[in-house]
Design a protein that fits this description.
Strand content: 35-45%
Shape: globular
Number of domains: 3
Largest sheet: 6 strands, antiparallel, barrel
Number of helices: 4
Oligomer: single chain
Helix content: 10-25%
CATH superfamily of the largest domain: endopeptidase domain like (from Nostoc punctiforme)
Structural class: mainly beta
């Protein structure tokens, strides 16, 4: 059995309780494989990245395998900005904010889709795309739309986002699927031997004292990085790591640079 998210955001929790730690989020339109059912909670695996956790059953719509195959074959578009406004076709004063990366499957006309038993259309047609071009400057333009978004562990939207969530969402809008966590993302791409050779859109990974990858950011160039730490911001980077202008000290120790694009 599969399910599809029918809320703008749905928290994915580590354990089978509403009070359990949020480890990630699923966005509107994402599909997941149901692994286990316990009351109003489902243990699921996100079809996009294989990430597992528990979700409230009321935040998804159950679909069988045939429906899943049918939906996967339907034309779909992605919200290609950090957020986009959609309005109710029957009540234009009623609007909903959808996060970047949400998946929209047309069910009425070119841009109409169903949400909460009503039909909505986006205010700007440019907010939807099949995918953006996977180019460094486009990746940066998308990432900069998240500037000042608050840090949220497990978050994947402009309403709250963590370091690997920022990377995953920005690259997914460009049609590139990456794993959820920084420790998984570091296995992708090709190594850039020197920071001086890095270019826009490369990923920089950072380690803790025992060498575990604990942070990731997107390079603006070979001396600046955009990342989520406290909030999404741009800091200086050198061969030692990220230098925080606020703390006047290094906040993260550089491990390596990878090229995805």
């Amino acid at each position: 059995m599969f399910c599809i998210v029918n809320q703008i955001l749905a928290p994915l929790r580590e354990g089978n309780a509403e009070t359990s730690e949020m480890v990630s989020q699923l966005l509107f339109g994402e599909m997941a494989l149901v692994l286990e059912k316990r009351g109003n909670r489902l243990k699921i695996s996100n079809c996009a990245d294989g990430y597992e956790g528990w979700i409230d059953r009321r935040m998804v719509e159950m679909i069988d395998e045939n429906e899943t195959i049918h939906l996967s074959q339907q034309p779909e578009k992605t919200v290609c900005t950090a957020y986009a406004l959609a309005k109710n076709k029957d009540n234009v004063a009623e609007k909903v904010i959808f996060p970047g990366g949400a998946i929209i499957r047309s069910v009425e006309g070119e841009n109409g889709f169903k949400f909460q038993n009503s039909y909505y259309v986006f205010e700007k047609e440019t907010d939807l795309a099949d995918s953006m071009k996977p180019e460094g400057e486009i990746v940066l333009d998308l990432a900069k739309q998240y500037l000042h978004a608050p840090y949220l562990w497990g978050g994947k939207s402009i309403f709250g986002i963590d370091c690997s969530g920022l990377v995953q969402i920005v690259f997914s809008i460009c049609g590139i699927r990456l794993p959820r966590d920084a420790s998984q993302q570091v296995d992708k791409g090709a190594i850039v031997n020197f920071l001086s050779e890095a270019r826009a859109g490369d990923l920089a990974f950072f380690e803790d004292r025992v060498g575990k990858i604990v942070h990731v950011g997107i390079l603006v160039d070979n001396h600046r990085i955009i990342h989520a730490s406290g909030r999404v911001k741009i800091d200086r980077i050198d061969n030692e790591g990220i230098y925080s202008s606020e703390k006047q000290d290094y906040s993260h120790r550089l491990r390596l640079v990878k090229r995805i694009l």
